[in-house]
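ARCHIVE CARD
Drawer: 12
Card no.: 0347
Subject: one protein chain, sequence and derived structure
Cross-reference: see card 0346
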Amino acid sequence: MKSNQDVLIVLFLSIGITASVVLTTNLVWAGPENNTLIQLQRTQNMSANTNSTNIVLVHGGWADGSSWGKVITILKDAGHKVIAVNMPLHNLADDVATVKRAVELVGKPVILVGHSYGGEVITNAGYNNPNVTGLVYIAAFAPDEGQSLSNFVSPKDFPQEFLMLDSAGLAYINPAMFHDRFAQDVDPTEAYIMAVAQKPFNASTFAEKSGPPAWKQLPTWYQISTSDLMIPPDAQQKFAKQMNATTISINASHASYVSHPNEIAKLILDAAKGKTTQ
């Protein structure tokens, strides 16, 4: 009898030790650092399971990622994973690096979408990037190699007192002029909030040279704002033509993605499907 009791004691001790090892292992892998890895793995698995295209939205000057809010909701409801980056807007190189990190984070396939200056950013961030499958330009710059924003628009082209520079050379749009110049078809209260929350843009970026363009490598889509007072519609038409982009025109201000989110979201969804005809 004593021998049987000894066997039972050893058996219970073995079970207890095994359970302790398993519990300890699980607790270690549930640490803060590994939670991030687990979450990323789950995200990647979800993306693979749904076979959806990931979408990275890139704002322009005097805006941030939250300005895409209406478009984000539509894209999410359509089943896509979306990241709206927040760029520092201090220089082109840092902004391009920010977008590249977002593309790397979500994994392929990725559609890059850029508004205004964000078009120059995706032109550079998408170049030779194996994760990117298409580019969408929303009333955006699409320079060729060696060109800069100033080849198309210069601060001197804006009305007097339109831009206000701080001590570091970062430019703000005069809030009193924001609605009528940047977002004339946006609800005045919403435009006022955009003006108050605007992110300043380094004026020196106007002269920075763009690198080899991704639009020479990838399919492109372009939305022209025919009532744009920031980037001339004629320049937008030239960008779309040089890229042979699938193009739509909207009677919209520069802030077309805020005033016409349904049309903009549809263009992005067409790009995600690879649809190149209107």
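Annotation on reverse: Strands lie at 54-58, 82-84, 110-115, 132-138, 163-165, 170-173, 201-202, 220-225, 246-250. The chain is about 45% helix and 15% strand.
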